[in-house]
Amino acid sequence: MNASESDKLAARRWRLVLGRYADGPLPGSASDAGLDATLGYLYDREYAARGHRHARGGASLDPSALTALNWLSGAQQLFPRSTLERLERDALARYGIDELLASPEAVASVEASPELGAALMRVKGRMDPRAADGFRQVIRRVVDDIVERLRPPLTTALTGSRQRHRRSPHASSRNFDWRGTIAANLANVDPETGRMLVEQVRFVARQRGRNLHWEVIVLVDQSGSMADSLIHSAVTAAILSGLPGISVRLVLFDTSVVDLTHLARDPVEVLMTAQLGGGTDIARAMTYAASLVSQPSRTVVALVSDFEEGGSVSALVGSVRRLAESGVTLIGLAALSDAGEPWFDRSTAARLVGAGMQVAAMTPDRFAEWLAGVMT
Fold it and tell me: What is the reported pTM?
């Protein structure tokens, strides 16, 4: 980096530090507008507390439950994880999120979203106990919205074997009926070229084989980056628990293992019990999963993680290899945000693939399709 670039970077940093109080000549860019506004909303309170007058045209510094909680859920789109953790700690102190969640009016006014749910999960361990009821209400609304969205595709994907005589409205590659599609479009064949114009596409319905029983063991990483995945895993486990022919074991882990199978049908209670943060010992969780297996050929172990192993990677690989060799079907689900953005340790993931685990970044509905393919 030459001197000119270094000077520009330093000036840009000062512009972000000073925010609306920066001199006009300091450079700013359109790409920094979101960063500037987000930092200003949090830290301008310091200037106001020290007697500085707020510049005209900016956002009000008056406390607002709706704005504060929306800020908490939106900041993750702008900052890296390490910076976000610091901002969230400061937000708890400056916004008084505890007090907002203790207010029925504030809780009723907030728009519940997966992003807000994930943000609250990340700061849950630092909240005042008085905020528990408000936290539960917001999380319940988040969960209800996700259940409404995910239950239909998950239930449809896992209804079982295909029935060719019954048409399905659910368009997926697994349900594509090529024979029916050809038959429905025979009248559209060009006699000169022999090409068919496909106007009607047929899909087949599914019905679960009733005599088959599967055990699905869901292992969910509780490290700090897993908030979005934890919420969706809890909902997915609850939906799977209500389907015939499937027994679900739900296990959360960090450096210890917590079996929440008794709560698997209630995702809100799972999330109230969960505690994000701390280390990660995936090998310990896999060893615990192995102790639960009674019928390897009828067992699926689904590991939801960012694969950033804090323990022994060799021990983890060994556990996966032994389970795979026994006949257990294994899948590693990379951490996903609600927007479907994956992040995971690719090196560890590659070693697990070599040991017999399929690793993929997929949304819950795609996981259900994969699971249906395993079970049929």
Answer: 0.69
Q: Locate 228 and state its tokens.
A: 């979005």
Domain presence at residue 260: yes
pLDDT tens for the chain, 376 residues: list them: 455 666 565 655 545 555 555 555 555 555 555 556 656 655 565 555 555 555 444 434 344 454 666 666 666 565 666 666 666 666 666 666 777 788 787 788 777 888 888 888 888 887 888 888 999 999 999 999 999 999 998 888 886 544 444 444 445 555 667 667 766 766 677 777 767 677 677 766 554 444 468 999 999 999 877 888 999 999 999 999 999 889 999 999 999 999 999 999 999 999 999 988 778 999 999 999 999 999 999 999 999 999 999 999 999 999 999 999 999 999 999 876 545 567 788 999 999 999 999 999 888 888 988 998 888 7
Which 8-state DSSP code applies to residue 50? T
Residues 171, 45 share a domain: no
Count of alpha carbons within 13 angstroms of residue 351, beta-carbon side: 16
Structural domain range at position 72: 3-143
37 with 127, same domain? yes
Q: Is 232 within 8 Å of 118 (Cβ atoms)?
A: no
Q: What DSSP character marks residue 173?
A: G
Q: Of 177, 192, 207, at which residue does a domain stop? A: 207
- Residue 359 and residue 295 share a domain: yes
On whether both 185 and 239 belong to a single domain, the answer is no
Residue 358 is which amino acid? Q
